[in-house]
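Submission sheet (multi-component)
Chains listed below:
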Amino acid sequence: MIILAVSFLLFTDIGPVAKRYSKVKVYAANLVGPALRGLSAPFRFTHDVFDSYANLVHVKKRNSELQKRVETLQLQNQKLAELEKENERLRKLLHFMDQRPGTLIASRVIGEDLTNWFKSVVIDKGRGNGISEKMPVVTPEGVVGQAVEVNQWHTKVMLLIDTNSAIDVYATGKQARGILTGTGRTTLKMKYVLKNDDLEAGDRLITSGKDGVYPRGLPVGVVISVNKNVVGLFAEVEVMPFNNFRKLDEVLVVRR
Amino acid sequence: MIRRAFALALALSLMVLQSALFSFLPIESSKPDIAVPYIIYATFFLSPFEGLITAFIVGFAEEMLSVGPHGALIFTKVFLFLSCIFLRSRLYIESQYLFAAISSCFVLLESALFIALAFLGKGEAGAVMTVLKFSLPNAVFTAVLALFLFPVFERLKLRPYGVG
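Outcome: structure written.
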């Protein structure tokens, strides 16, 4: 009965009763608060742990997903750069072929000489595509070599740098002429250049068309050194080919 | 017989693989000679006849994938086979390490033979410097390859029981 009476007084908001009740509540709360905090701490800790763990798992998962995405994008980026290079190379090839319609057969390099004593590559076109022996092989940069063995599906191309290779060349805009031979290394040697010929470093060499293999006017390389302080009639001339033979991907066979 | 044919097919496949792989990799300083360990194994552990057949087949395969002078690689391979015949009763190969060492010596011998041929034959003398330059790296790489090939041959159980 007493409780009911007090409750009634509280709900009916009788001033003095309500004020006292409020004070009591505050005091009581002052006592309960720390206890409550103390009791809730382990629960909060457990909750936090689970929450953090759940977050961590989620973050880890997300991180892994993002990492994968970054890797995929990096790979795509690399591929794009490679494709862009290939596109540029093929565009050059196409332009080169457009200038000489019907005379060039485009092919890909599929193999290299098994020994490093000789320098050759194998291309994916053969007799079936109209290739025959002694056909010149070029790129838009310059001469690559000549077809030496042709079968139905592929062709062996002897590179310019092979020690058995020789091309009749002359320097553009000059009278100097000579035979360009391979050395088995990156550079070539131009033989039979007279010491009084006006050849100097930086001169560009093109095929003369007089060796019966290469048509006239194909770029071959650039003179990098001329040594006239040697015994004999001829100067020692070193030439750097325009093509990088370690990075040959596509080549063109010149139909004769 | 099937196992030996398989081993030979493996040699030819490795050669084609090497040719294709090296056109993508800009490495030319060292190319292992796949043929050499095969010739040594066939002659030492199988029979001289099988050694000769192997030398001829792998030599011919190398010629197909190279622009060397016609017959030069078959010649050097058959010469290596003859050297193996000479050493067969004088040398006992008991481990893969010795097998690798002999393979590497044979690559050097092959290079020396090619240089001698170049001087004698005239016209190929230009290749001498190139052969000299690459002989040692080729010998080392062939030894490494031989180290891996010997266990493969042994696993294939190519040799008859008690031979070698």
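Remark: The CA atoms of residues 98 and 256 of chain A lie 17 Å apart.
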